[in-house]
Amino acid sequence: xxxxETNETAASTVQAPLVKTPSVETPASDVVLSPWAIETxxxxxxxxxxxxxxxxxxxxxxxxVTAIIGPSGCGKSTAxxxxxxxxxxxxxxxxxxxxxxxxxxxxxxxxxxxxxRSRIGMVFQKPNPFPKTxxxxxxxxxxxxxxxxxxxxxxxxxLRQVYLWDEVKDKLKKNAYELSGGQQQRLCIxxxxxxxxxxxxxxxxxxxxxxxxxxxxxxxxxxxxxRFTIIIVTHxxxxxxxxxxDTAFFLNGILVEMGPTREIFFTPxxxxxxxYISGRFG
Amino acid sequence: MNASxxxxxxxxxxxxxxIFSALFFASTLFAIVSLVTLLASVLDxxxxxxxxxxxIPEADIVPSDDEGNPIPLASLExxxxxxxxxxxxxxxxxxxxxxxxxxAERSPGDLRELIIAEVLEPSVVRSWNFAESMxxxxxIFQWAAETVPEGSLVxxxxxxxxxxxxxxxxxxxxxxxxxxxxxxxxxxxxTILIAFPLGLGAAIYLEEYARDxxxxxxIKTNIYNLSGVPSIIYGMLGLGIFVRFMAxxxxxxxxxxxxxxxxxxxxEAAALAADGRTILSxxxxxxxxxxxMLIINAQEAIRAVPRTLRESGYALGATRWQVxxxxxxxxxxxxxxxxxxxAVSRGIGETAPxxxxxxxTFLTQDPTGIFSKFTTLPIQIYQWTSRPQPEFRxxxxxxxxxxMVLLMSLNSAAIILRNKFRSQRxx
Lengths: 282, 427
Fold this sequence. Notes:
The structure holds 2 protein chains of 2 kinds.
Chain A: H1 7-15, E1 36-47, E2 50-61, E3 65-69, H2 76-82, E4 93-101, E5 104-105, H3 113-119, E6 120-123, H4 134-144, H5 151-161, H6 165-168, H7 181-193, E7 199-203, H8 211-224, E8 229-233, H9 237-243, E9 246-251, E10 254-260, H10 261-266, H11 271-277
Parallel strand pairs in A: 3-8, 3-9, 6-7, 7-8
Antiparallel strand pairs in A: 1-2, 1-4, 4-5, 9-10
Helix pairs in contact in A: 1-5, 4-7, 7-8
Chain B: H1 3-44, E1 47-53, H2 58-61, H3 78-88, H4 91-100, H5 108-120, E2 123-127, H6 130-135, H7 137-147, E3 152-157, H8 161-165, H9 178-209, H10 214-226, H11 231-245, H12 247-250, H13 253-259, H14 267-273, H15 279-303, H16 307-315, H17 320-349, H18 352-357, H19 377-385, H20 391-422
Antiparallel strand pairs in B: 1-2, 1-3
Helix pairs in contact in B: 3-5, 9-15, 9-17, 9-19, 11-15, 15-17, 16-17, 17-20, 19-20
């Protein structure tokens, strides 16, 4: 069907057979495509009585890597998790305002968060493969989303894209927990892209990994931005500087400043950003 | 630094640690010693010398060979055995036995057994425990020879194949636990079939779907309370609801009436004649009894599944049910099964609720289906221990061993199953 050696062909193969049930937020008919992958309009977020995100206006461009930085507890992970409605699963949370995905409010009526999440993938801080075989890890997400193509091909192309194929091709039937931490995290990325999402949310994906594994994942992100919009939350400012095109700085639930990474790092407009970047707090 | 002060306090801390570890060891030792004593005292009663007296000596009924010596029963064939029965039993009794199963069709072994039970009529004069039998053999023999010289002293293993294959009898020498084992087994299987899906379903609902509001908190608290309710209360509930109120259903009258619609028996009459004291009622009662425990165990197992695992499922666009079915349940199944085994083990050993629900204390027939009258091992043990004849204590001990073996095999089956699930779980 394709030559899985090259990533581009591989990607198109993955996308082609993926049959998605027509859902309300298929952008084809009723929505004018927004220039932004994700746009929030005065978004507020509460955990019970605690407001974690305050009046957030943020525009995230397509096919770029956007880094969200800020000290612990500043609401950056919370903001990220509103972008695929992951916070819906936590009881007692509340969202106000709008979050537009392809120009349509993802918290609006008639939007099914299940369908939404299959188009906005997520990679977590701690590698969390399913306690199943490596092969099953890749196939499961695609299958529940109606994948009808060749599963072996999907496994191979997905694993090749994260450069894991050569390392695991002889033990696809082994439990995913037999892999190293870095391999597990790359498996999680492969699992996420096997569903062919449009956006990839990454919540501190390398904070539990060693520098070599971190490097491999950073390389992947730079490569992937041609096909996905990547939003990454990170504690590591060097990492943000290395891989991101845009950077957003959060402090106490407020988006202090956002812009091209170079500007944020070298000519920040806000003194708080400058303090944080130069390591004066956080 | 104050060196002397520090070392003194360190010594004290070490001493405290040693005292506590000694205490912990002592309590473990106490538990083990108690268990071993218990087990030993049970096993002690399952074998030993028994002094048996026959109403007629064997030599009086068997024919003699050419030299005038009596031929032992064991070497007689069907013909000879039948003639002994003919000579010694009344016509009425013979007819009754023939009705049960034609005598001519019975095997020589069966006939010999019948002669021993019906003609020789052995009765236990005295039985000795295993330890006594081993240690003071001489004095036992002496006592037997002095007290009942015509009696026969045999060494008896109370747990035997005939004990397992015989039903209840009023003579301890012929009593067995077959119908009790079958009753226990059928009851517990049916209990699992009823309670496991209900308990697991309730646990999934409470953990995964129920919102954290006042009603659900009230329900959860009360499930905890229910697990502490004495089992006899469940027995009364079972008696009131399953045995009495739902008698047409639990006695099977509804179903037999439906299947025999052509017959002229009216439904009301069948229901009136029906008796709800069946395996079905017992299982429903036991299921209610273990349900709170099952729910709590399963809830805890489900709660122990890490949130990251659920999130990884949801992040791929899975529905709640897909996450539960494909990830939460497989990851928690080993713990759920362990909890189920604990709950079911409690159910197997229950006596009080079954007494109320109407387990038969003297049942010579095997249960044939869920609408049969039944007895279970604990009921049987309870009944035997309450009889005055000391030899029934021996068969009660034997039945206890059978019950323990049944429990242990159930547990090991569950452990094997659990390990199978656990090998898949690495979180």
